[in-house]
């Protein structure tokens, strides 16, 4: 029998905004394999995620795959990946009532809190992306929105890994990071504007750079390029239209159907496990094979 057992491992998961996020399914799969899960959620989403973790009406969504009970998280920490340290936070954000209640929500502070409390970090999940001009074509994207999309959606992985390096270095069996990317980082997907395609292209080379920079510490860095899936963020790209992209891709994919978020979660578990101990700097396409097609 080939075991995947994350008992005793600590996973820091970014990007849970609700119980439809890829990161939600990833958290459940990691937890089902035995990992202790700490969520680092956008400060504005902390309350929503806390209620999803406790409300009876959301119980079914908390059920773990493979009959493993219910999702249990160790902590839900606020983290806005726009900020490396609290010194980067501008005054208008600091005083915003949705932020003001939290003394710490930078990448460095979040990673330090987890690393110190749990004595190390074995798994980091990067599942965040944002562009305020996502509905604009690339040509019409402003410089401000472009840089913001790059900072939140791409640079944040580098910042996370720099902060996590001391806690992930030379862990028993090695440590692993997995990020989420999209085909729009390789090729033109017409609706994927606002700097997001550039951010995904940047994320893809950054993951290779980080794999090279961190490999000597036995830290692996890989990405999953997921097929289109109607999470809340994805539906907001073109309200009502995104479902058509899913249909388009599924009709043309070698496996002629949409992906499920559990498939992304399972592939993430594989990449974090010792079964993938020789795999780093890679992009694994979990898209029913759509990327190999030229139609
Ligand atoms: N849904 C798809 O079709 C699809 C396909 C391929 C890749 N992806 C990628 O998967 C990842 C997760 O997206 P999803 O589809 O699960 O949507 P989602 O909206 O559930 O997740 C995106 C998360 O990013 C978080 N976020 C945005 N700005 C942030 C910030 N400044 N600080 C901290 N968190 C911030 C949001 O709160 C949200 O939880 C993203 O990287 C996305 O690009 C999605």
Tell me about this structure.
By secondary structure, the chain is of the alpha/beta class. It is built from 11 helices and 7 strands. Bound molecules: nicotinamide-adenine-dinucleotide (NAD). The site of nicotinamide-adenine-dinucleotide (NAD) has 27 residues, from helix 1, strand 5 and helix 9.
Instruction: Determine the mean pLDDT.
Output: 96
Helix content: 40-55%
How many β-strands, per DSSP?
7
User: Low-confidence spans: pLDDT under 50, at least 5 residues?
Assistant: none
SSE pattern, N- to C-terminal? EHEHHEHHHEHEHEHHHE
Largest sheet: 7 strands, parallel
Bound molecules: nicotinamide-adenine-dinucleotide
What gyration radius follows from the Cα positions, in whole Å? 18 Å
Number of helices: 11
**Relative strand content:** 5-15%
CATH architecture: 3-Layer(aba) Sandwich
What general form does the structure show?
globular
Secondary structure topology:
Blueprint: E1 10-14, H1 22-32, E2 36-41, H2 46-54, H3 59-62, E3 75-78, H4 91-94, H5 97-100, H6 107-118, E4 123-126, H7 143-168, E5 175-181, H8 196-214, E6 219-226, H9 232-237, H10 242-252, H11 261-272, E7 283-286
Parallel strand pairs: 1-2, 1-4, 2-3, 4-5, 5-6, 6-7
Helix pairs in contact: 1-11, 6-7, 7-8
The chain binds nicotinamide-adenine-dinucleotide.
The site of nicotinamide-adenine-dinucleotide has 27 residues, from helix 1, strand 5 and helix 9.
């Amino acid at each position: 029998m080939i075991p995947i057992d994350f008992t005793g491992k600590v996973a820091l998961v970014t990007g849970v905004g609700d119980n439809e996020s890829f990161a939600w399914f990833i958290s459940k799969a990691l937890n089902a394999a035995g990992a202790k899960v700490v969520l680092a959620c956008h400060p504005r989403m902390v309350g929503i995620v806390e209620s999803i973790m406790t409300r009876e009406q959301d119980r079914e969504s908390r059920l773990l795959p493979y009959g493993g009970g219910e999702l249990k998280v160790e902590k839900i920490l606020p983290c806005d990946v726009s900020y490396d340290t609290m010194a980067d936070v501008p005054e208008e954000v600091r005083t915003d009532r949705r932020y003001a209640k939290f003394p710490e929500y930078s990448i460095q502070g979040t990673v330090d809190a987890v690393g110190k409390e749990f004595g190390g970090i074995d798994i980091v999940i990067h599942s965040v992306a944002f562009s305020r001009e996502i509905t604009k074509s690339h040509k019409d994207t402003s410089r401000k929105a472009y840089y913001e999309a790059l900072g939140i959606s791409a640079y944040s992985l580098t910042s996370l890994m720099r902060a996590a390096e001391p806690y992930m270095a030379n862990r028993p069996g090695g440590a692993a990071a997995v990020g989420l990317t999209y085909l729009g980082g390789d090729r033109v997907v017409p609706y994927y504007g606002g700097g997001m395609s550039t951010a995904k292209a940047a994320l893809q080379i950054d993951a290779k750079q980080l794999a090279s920079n961190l490999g000597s510490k036995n830290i692996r860095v890989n990405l999953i390029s997921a097929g289109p899936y109607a999470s809340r963020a994805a539906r907001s790209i073109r309200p009502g239209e995104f479902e058509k992209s899913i249909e388009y891709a599924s009709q043309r994919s070698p496996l002629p159907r949409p992906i499920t978020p559990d498939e992304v979660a399972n592939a993430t578990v594989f990449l974090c496990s010792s079964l993938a101990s020789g795999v780093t700097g890679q992009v694994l396409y979990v898209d029913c094979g759509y990327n190999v097609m030229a139609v």
